[in-house]
Specification:
The chain is of the alpha/beta class. It has 18 helices and 19 strands. The radius of gyration is 24 Å and the shape is globular.
């Protein structure tokens, strides 16, 4: 016993004196691993800086969130499989789309290239028979949302990042239970990271109902890296006829009127779309693909009475065109980012952007710089106070070169602006879940509606002008007058931008 104690003591003494040897070996192996993974150079450098300057914390952070786990390879295989499934259905969709491409071009001019991009990248066809309604904040969304739920006859599909068990969440659940009891098929997908309370209590909440509730990429300690891949989408579909997409989760915080706002004093600005018509078919397909990534019992598209157009339909005139762009971590085509960049490059007069997080890719930033330098008015609304200090500071650091070139930057002061919207020349618009950052462009599962609709875009633009009344404009000269220590902190946070 004494000998064993002596050996342990000697070992401890050796580790105390020579700890730097195994630690150096660990660091060298880790850095070599990061280099071999062939990430983007800026992301590689960011991880090396984190590990170097935060020795223990950095190692743990990288282990749980930074490694290219087999999960990423699995997601890539899943994406490849899903692309095959989309292609299988593309024939019936393509005949419908190509027969109306000339009309889309005549109606939308150069912006028809965006819809052509969505089509040729196999993201989405261009649907013409639609009705769009722009809904501002939860005050406008949820009355329509609950009304549509109550009218459901065949099925309800919900796919949400956050589904809270607060007042609006309980109202939704009661309607879903009632509908399921009356024969309506109810399927729910919630994100494993965004809706922990519902996931924890789902079995008890839905045990006496026929509601099917599934977790997207469940997060456990053994699979903590799954939290890096989030299903950030917010979709509700009823009877393959009407759907909601946008930035508004199922949570009281998005409703700024009593009684929902009683516990949340922060004003929450967000935007959603209510869509009726043929484009809902594509949302049904995307939900079906998401459902296939859960443990839920698979269902036939035909059994659910989904309708994919099989015959050519000819229109004399159109009021709206709508398609969808997506992001998923296994995809080689970041159609959300690329479709936005394409639209920005086609701008001639004005670009209006609202986003809560602005950590743009180099490609996106370059598109804005080129646009403003070619005489296009570029307006950007960001929250003055974000919900993440590091993200907020990193966002501010990206504004310097944009303001210097002439981009108008406005900081929203009324509360927190969570809307993710873009309008270009009041001819084409984007409304969805996509933030202007690397996470939304490349890591999360995201969706955004891309549309031409004069009435809907007019409301978006009017709301943008109203939001401007609650902002303060920050200029390049003002940025330079900010104390150097604050600018230094922003620049330091920017080093972490590739990881955010």
């Amino acid at each position: 016993m004494a000998e064993a104690t002596h050996i342990l003591h000697q070992l401890w003494q050796f580790l105390v004196e020579w700890y730097w040897i195994p630690l150096t070996l660990i660091y060298l192996v880790l850095i070599l691993t990061i280099l071999i993974e062939n990430r983007k150079p800026e992301k590689t450098i960011a991880w090396i800086l984190v590990i170097f300057f935060l020795p223990i914390i950095g190692l743990l952070f990288y282990f749980f969130f930074g490694q290219k786990f087999n999960k990423e390879k699995t997601l890539s295989r899943i994406d490849t499989k899903q692309q095959r499934q989309i292609i299988e259905r593309w024939h019936s969709i393509s005949s419908f789309n190509s027969s109306n491409q000339q009309l889309i071009t005549e109606q939308t001019g150069n912006f028809s290239k965006v819809f052509q991009y969505l089509y040729h990248s196999l993201s989405s066809p261009s649907y013409l028979d639609n009705q769009l309604e722009v809904l501002i904040n939860g005050e406008e969304k949820f009355p329509r949302f609950l009304e549509v739920l109550r009218q459901a006859k065949h099925h309800i599909h919900l796919e949400y990042y956050i589904f809270e068990l607060d007042q609006i969440g309980q109202e939704v659940i009661e309607i879903l239970k009632n509908k399921a009891a009356n024969g309506v098929i109810v399927r729910i997908i919630v994100d494993g990271f965004g809706s922990p309370k519902l996931i924890k209590k789902a079995k008890k909440i839905f045990e006496d109902s026929l509601i099917q509730c599934q977790t997207f990429l469940p997060v456990h300690f053994s699979s903590l890296a799954n939290s890096n891949y989030r299903n950030h989408r917010k979709i509700m579909i009823v009877d393959a006829e009407i759907a909601f997409v946008g930035g508004i989760n199922i949570s009281d915080r998005y409703i700024n009127t009593p009684p929902y706002s009683d516990k949340n004093k922060l004003y929450w600005r967000d935007t959603s779309l209510c869509i009726r018509g043929e484009s809902v078919d594509m949302l049904e397909l995307q939900f079906w693909l998401s459902w296939s990534m859960t443990q839920g019992q698979m269902y036939s598209m035909d059994e659910a009475e989904y309708h994919f157009p099989e015959q050519k339909i000819t229109y004399r005139s159109i009021e709206s065109v709508i398609g969808f762009s997506y992001t998923s971590p296994g995809s080689d085509v970041p159609s959300a980012m690329e479709s936005m960049i394409l639209a920005i490059s086609l701008a001639k007069e004005k670009i209006c952007i609202t986003t809560p997080y602005f950590i743009p890719s180099d490609e996106f930033k370059s598109a804005l710089l080129i646009a403003v330098s070619s005489g296009v008015e570029v307006n950007l609304i960001l929250p003055e106070k974000g919900d993440s200090f590091i993200v907020q500071q990193a966002s501010l650091s990206f504004l310097k070169s944009l303001m210097k070139r002439g981009v108008n930057v406005h900081l929203y002061q009324k509360g927190f602006i969570h809307a993710k919207t873009i309008t270009v020349d009041n001819e084409i618009a984007f409304v969805g879940t996509v933030n202007l950052d690397n996470r939304s462009f490349f890591i999360n599962f995201e969706i955004t509606a891309v549309f031409y609709d004069k009435k809907a875009i007019k409301k978006l633009y009017q709301q943008f002008k109203l939001d401007l009344l609650d902002t303060r404009k920050i200029t390049y000269q003002q940025w330079k007058s900010i104390p150097m220590i604050h600018r230094g902190i922003a620049s330091l946070c920017r080093l972490l931008a590739p990881l955010l």
